[in-house]
Write a structure and sequence with these properties.
single chain; 8 strands; alpha+beta; about 25% strand; about 170 residues; globular
């Protein structure tokens, strides 16, 4: 018959005790939050919260920069280009979610196979812009932001974030 040395028993307790505590408390171990604010240039500080949300949701943030939508044509002068491990997002930031709800998105019919045309009417302006090309464009309204992506799986990942955000509110 073999016995466990006191060192072996101590090692076993140190291994099993955290598992038992987690099971008793009913909580899962927490993920360590990484501050990503150093990746956001000071001129884009309005994007800090969203970039942090992406990171906290398990996305790896590679780079944050100025967006091509920064000039105000979209009814806002706040827009960021965000490169992640999942792909690139163009994010337009508005003052309120009501402004985002005013954005009208329409996909236009085109007889050319695999060619996509969209018309977007922006809030705070009477402008409408067209998007067209071989790649589809995905638009996601997320709180006071409009997120533009060019990849279906990336758009689906953004939509999951949006759904999770809504569920947390309820």
């Amino acid at each position: 018959m073999r016995s466990i040395s006191s060192f072996g028993a101590l090692s076993l307790l140190l291994f099993v005790l955290p598992i038992l505590q987690a099971d008793i408390s009913g909580t899962a171990p927490s993920l360590q939050v990484q501050d990503v604010s150093q990746l956001v240039p000071p001129t884009l500080s309005f994007a800090n919260n969203f970039v942090q949300t992406l990171s906290d949701s398990g996305w790896s943030i590679e780079r944050v920069g100025l967006s091509i939508y920064n000039g105000g044509m979209a009814g806002t002068t706040k827009a960021a280009w965000i490169k992640t491990d999942k792909g690139v997002l163009e994010v337009l930031f508005y003052e309120t979610s009501a402004e985002v709800e005013k954005i009208q998105l329409k996909e236009n019919d085109d007889s050319t196979p695999n060619y996509h045309k969209y018309t977007v009417r922006w809030p705070n302006t009477d402008r409408a812009n067209g998007f067209e090309g071989r790649l589809p464009v995905y638009f996601t309204k997320y709180g006071s932001m409009l997120i533009i992506s060019y990849d279906r799986s990336l758009a689906d990942a953004v939509n999951k974030l949006s759904v999770a955000k809504e569920q947390k509110r309820k």
